[in-house]
Fold each of these.
Amino acid sequence: MLHRPAHWLYNHKLYFLARLLSQISRFFTNVEIHPGAKIGWGLFIDHGSGVVIGETTTIGNDCTIYQGVTLGGTGKETGKRHPTLCDNVIIGCGAKVLGPFKVGSNSKIASGAVVLEEVPENSTAVGVPAKIVRINGKKIYNSNKNLDHIHIPNPIQNQIQELSDRINELESKLNNKDFSK
Ligand SMILES: CC(C)(COP(=O)(O)OP(=O)(O)OC[C@H]1O[C@@H](n2cnc3c(N)ncnc32)[C@H](O)[C@@H]1OP(=O)(O)O)[C@@H](O)C(=O)NCCC(=O)NCCS
C-alpha cells in the first residue's frame, strides 16, 4: 500500500519524499521496496521479513514472494539492473534473483536458489546457480544425480579389467586351439 504513493512520488521526481515513504514502510514491515520498482496487481509478500526489491525491478500481476527474497542486481550492470517477473511467478524463501533478465509467467523459483539467467515461462528453477529442472511440469534435469560423489568412475581399474578379460579370452582360445575367430 505504501509503495503505490511512493512510486507516484518517484514518477513525479519527488525522490526524497518517495524514499522517505519507502523507508517508513521498511521500518514497519522489514520489506524494502525501492520507490522506482514497477509492481502489478495482486502481489503477495508472505511473511515479508528481509525482502529487498531493487529500483529497476518490474513485477507482473498475481506474483508471490516469500521472506528473504532479493530481486537485485549483480553490481555489473548499469541502467536496467534488476529482474522482470512476468505474471503469476512464485519466488521461494531466501531466493536471490540477480540481473536484468525475465522470469517467465507461471514459473517457480525454489527456496534458496540464486538465479542469474533468464527463466522461461511455466518452469521451475532450483539451486545455486539455479538450473531449470521442470518445464510445463516435465522433468528436464536431475538435480540430485548431477554430481554423484559416491559412484565415481575409476578409469585405471576399468582398463585393468579390460586387459584381464582380453588375456582370459586369448588363453581360452589357446587352450582350445580355436583360431577361427
Ligand atoms: C521449487 C518448488 C516451488 C516446487 O516446484 P515444482 O515445480 O513443484 O518442483 P518439484 O517439487 O517437482 O521439484 C523439482 C526438483 O527440484 C528439487 N527441489 C525442489 N525445491 C528445491 C530447493 N528449494 N532447493 C533445491 N532443490 C529443490 C526437487 O527435489 C526436485 O528434484 P528431482 O527432480 O531431482 O527430484 C518448491 O520446492 C519450493 O521451493 N517452494 C518455495 C516454498 C517456500 O518458500 N515456502 C516458504 C514458506 S514459509
Amino acid sequence: MPETDAIVIGAGAAGLTAGALLAKEGRSVKVVEAGPHLGGRGMAVPEEGFKLNLGGHLLEDGGGGITKVFEYLGRTLGHGAASSDMVVWDEEKCGWGSIRDRYSSDKSELKKVIEALLATSFEELERWDDRPLRAWLAQHTSDQGVYDLFEFIAVLECMTDNWWDHSASENLICRKLHYEEANRAAYSFWPEGGWDGLFGQLRDAVVEHGGEVLMDTPVESVLIEDGEVKGVRLGRDKVLPNEVLEGEVLEADCVISTLPVWSVLRVVPESALPDWYAAQIRFLAQDHLKISWLGLYLATEEPVHVNSAAELATWTAAPRSRLSGFFFNQTAMDPATSPPGTNLYVCGGIIPGAKARDMRWVEHQFELFEEDLREMYPGLRGAYWRRRHLVHDPSFGVIQKPGLVGVFRPHWRAPNVEGLYFASETFRSRGIGVDRAARAALTVVEDYLGRKLDGNFGWRYG
Ligand SMILES: Cc1cc2nc3c(=O)[nH]c(=O)nc-3n(C[C@H](O)[C@H](O)[C@H](O)COP(=O)(O)OP(=O)(O)OC[C@H]3O[C@@H](n4cnc5c(N)ncnc54)[C@H](O)[C@@H]3O)c2cc1C
C-alpha cells in the first residue's frame, strides 16, 4: 500500500483546494508544485512598491464556492471591497455611461428575465452549452438594455465580445449563482488579505490537516500501469536538454492533475488515454481558443474614474484598436497594493488568441490600445508608471463560447485510468477563474470520496 493516498499536481487555486479538502477528510495528501510561488495563475508578486497579480484581479464568487470551501476548512475568506457600478463606453457618443442607463427606463423587462432565470433549473441551463446567450434571453425579452446588461457582463467575465460568442449556459449559470447567492447580476470583490493571503490560507489548511505542499518540485510524469495510477515521477533540472530523467517516484493510487489543457499532456502520457479524450484536450489547447489580452498596469497620482473609484469599466470596441476590454482601480479595492498617494489601474484589451504570438502585431496593438486609454481617460496622460504584459501563455483560460463549454470539455475523471482525475477550470467545470478552479477541485474530491461533502456549498458539477 502506498503511504500517500493522493498526489495533487499544482499548487494553484484548484490544487490547494483539492489538497486541503482531502487532508481535512483524513486522506494523506501531497501537493506538488513546480514553481516557487503559491497560486499558479493567481499568484501575486511585489514590484517597485506595487503588488501585481499574474491573474487574480477580482474574485467572482457569490458566496457558495470558494467562500464556502474556506468555511468548510474552518477558515474565513473575507469579502473585501466589491465593484460598485459598471460603466460602459458608448462608441456612438464617444463617452461613458452607466450600464444602468441602458436598462432602467423599463425595469419590468429586466425583472421578468431575472424571474425566468431564477425559475429555470441549473440542469435546464446546462442544455444550452451550444447556444448563444442572446438566444435564451430572446425567449423572454426583446429589450436591448437587458441584452446589454447580460452581454457586457459576459465581456468582463468571459472575455467574449460578439453577441453570438457569449455562451448561454456558462453566463446564465453564473448569473443565477450570483442572483441567488449575492442578490445581484454580477458580484466581484477583492479577497481580504490579498491574493497571496488567500493562497497562503489554503496552503496552511493543507498542512494543518496533515498534508504536505512541496514547492519547486516539478512532476515529470504520471505513472500508469494496466489502467491504474501508480504515482508520479518527479523531475529535476536536466543536465542535457534531452536527458531522460529517472527521478524519485512518489507512489499513490490517486493522482489529481490541476494542469490546464495546454500543459497537461506534457505530464500525463497521452498513450494511456483514449484517443477521443486526448483529442478533446488537444482541441481545447489551441492558441485561438485561449483567452488572450494586452494587459497594462498603470499608476497615477490623481484618481481616474467616471462615477466612483470602485467601478468596473468595459467596452466592446475601443476608439482606435477596436479591441474590447476592461479597466479598474486596484488601489480602490486594496490600498495596500500601491504606494500611498498613488492609484494602480489594471486594464486589458482582448485580442484573438491566434494573433498573440505575432509580436510585431502585439506591439502595434499596445501602442493603439494605450492611445485608446488616454482618449477614454484623459487623466491617464499623467500616468507616471506602467507595465505591459501579454496574457496568452499562460492564458486566463479556454474561451467560453458556445460549443466550447460544459459537456464539450473533457470530463474530470479519466475515462479508462483508475485513480486519475483532472481538477482544472479548463476541463469540465463552471464559474469564473479562481472560484471556478476551486469548484472544479470540490467536484473531483467529492467524486474521489464517493460522497458529497456537508459544506452547504452552492451548485457545482457532480
Ligand atoms: C492575466 C490573468 C488574469 C486573470 N484574472 C482573473 C480574475 O480577475 N479573477 C479570477 O477569478 N481569475 C482570474 N484569472 C484566472 C485564474 O487565475 C485561473 O482560473 C486560476 O488561477 C486557475 O487555477 P488552477 O489551479 O486551475 O490552475 P493554475 O493556477 O494554472 O495552477 C496550475 C499549477 O500547476 C503548476 N504546474 C505546472 N506544471 C507542473 C508540473 N509539471 N509539476 C508540478 N506543478 C506544475 C503551475 O506552476 C501552477 O501553479 C486570470 C488569469 C490570468 C492569466
